[in-house]
Amino acid sequence: MREAEIQDFWSAHPCGDQLFGSPSGDQRHNYEEFFSRYDRAKYRLEPHIPLCLNGLDLAGRRVLEIGLGQGAEAELLIRRGARWAGVDLTETAVERTRTRLAVRHLPFDGIHRASALDLPFPADSFDIVFSHGVLHHVPDIHDAQREIHRVLKPGGQLVVMLYARWSLNYLLSIGLLRRVVLLTAHPLSRLGLLGNPRGLLGAHLDNARRYGLLRYLRMGEFIHRNTDGPANPYSRVYDKREVRKAFSEFVVTRTEKRFMHAPPLPVHGLPGEKALGWHLWVYMRPKK
Q: What is the pTM of this model?
């Protein structure tokens, strides 16, 4: 898996645009309106994120964020007192985050287009490294965690959100329901009984024709295309054992699951996120 392929995908599909739209024009009020609309929608959907950040000791700490999206978490971290710097693989995320911080007059230490595999900072630069929903898109996770360990101060903290293997979304929605739908729709489509399906189903049928149905339905392939859209080139799910193996230079101090989410099942907001939530928050300390 080439990092350039992942970069191209996220450049063409900025995180959140598919759910919340994208800014129009380049005037200040257009961006201000977009960021306000985006934040309302995002934290209505994921209200646990600000609550989780409230539990971090951020005031006066040097914080590196890996993966920026639309800059929403960057703003939350800065408003909680962090001395923030950020990196992202795409110029789109870097520019949108820089624009957000400018229009809202928020200070920051630096923002860079850079890879998690080659962070542009000296060793022992940060008290906290934070990454929400990004590192599960990094195939070379061992190299990424080694770089994070390098720039994190001894005794610092790494906080990441990773997609959870033991979740309703992975086990039932992706692992069973969506595969059954595609297994049923594929022969009907080949017989011309579905017309010309569009949207997600049409994209998945196109993928099945491109890769072969049985190959595409293998979870090692299917998971990539069922987290952030059918064109997404790489995703991985984690459990505690896999986290410890992948982040071998860290000690896991705490984990918790959040976000009851398993489309197309209408489970959002229902109880059960601690057992079957889609977002696995992991808190780690570097090994000496």
A: 0.95
